[in-house]
Write a structure and sequence with these properties.
Helices cover 29% and strands 30% of the residues. Strand 5, helix 4 and strand 6 form a beta-alpha-beta unit. Helix 4 packs across helix 5. By secondary structure, the chain is an alpha+beta fold. It has a single domain, classed as 3-Layer(aba) Sandwich (Aminopeptidase). It has 5 helices and 8 strands, in the order ββαααβββαβαββ. Strands 1-2-3-4-5-6-8-7 form an 8-stranded mixed β-sheet, with helices on both faces. It is globular. The protein binds coenzyme A. The site of coenzyme A has 23 residues, from helix 2, strand 5, helix 4 and helix 5.
Amino acid sequence: MTAPSIAPFPPMLELGDGRLCLRPWQDDDADSLFEAARESVTSLARWLPWCHPDYQRHEAIAWIARCREGWHAGEHAALPIFDAAGAELLGAVGLNQFNRAHRSANLGYWVRQSRHGQGIAAAACRLVTRFGFAQLGLARIEIVVLPDNHASRRTAEKLGAQLEAIARHRLWVDGQPRDAAVHALIPADLQGAR
Ligand SMILES: CC(C)(COP(=O)(O)OP(=O)(O)OC[C@H]1O[C@@H](n2cnc3c(N)ncnc32)[C@H](O)[C@@H]1OP(=O)(O)O)[C@@H](O)C(=O)NCCC(=O)NCCS
């Protein structure tokens, strides 16, 4: 039997750097997710359509259930970001769209509006990309962003990701194909990250 190209997700995981704590979603995170999403509609909705003005608690519950299934199936490593005490939900990161043949994945992230500009996305992405390379055995992680999402592109840059292309029709958004900036990390890029 050949070894799997990407390692199975561990049943339990906690990633931390002294300021942030990341671990898989739990059912009782739904209220925190609901509150963070409702707080963040103004800044998130333009980029992440799931975060809409009428976002409801049942959507948070359903999303967490999907994330838990995705973790169990090894298809979506979704991790809420908490402060070190585990008291406040600050946002979330996720590795998804795994390409097992070529050991790559996509990285997504968001941070609640009241906590923007504090380096949270970059720090959380640093933790999850290290996990992806060191523990899952990934060789490449992509961050695919609409070209005018400057905060997200700056986050990718701070992480050490290289801009490789403006890829034509790379994303399907609002019923249409859109060109997107493809930033990517390989393990060596993390050495230069700050
Ligand atoms: C992108 C996002 C996660 C960044 O979160 P964050 O915790 O504020 O990010 P960080 O503090 O680590 O870094 C953000 C950087 O972007 C910069 N930035 C923020 N808004 C910017 C803008 N409009 N233009 C250029 N740079 C901008 C910040 O100054 C910071 O850079 P600096 O540290 O050099 O000053 C957050 O803005 C967000 O949730 N956006 C909506 C969701 C989204 O777009 N997700 C990505 C989808 S691909």
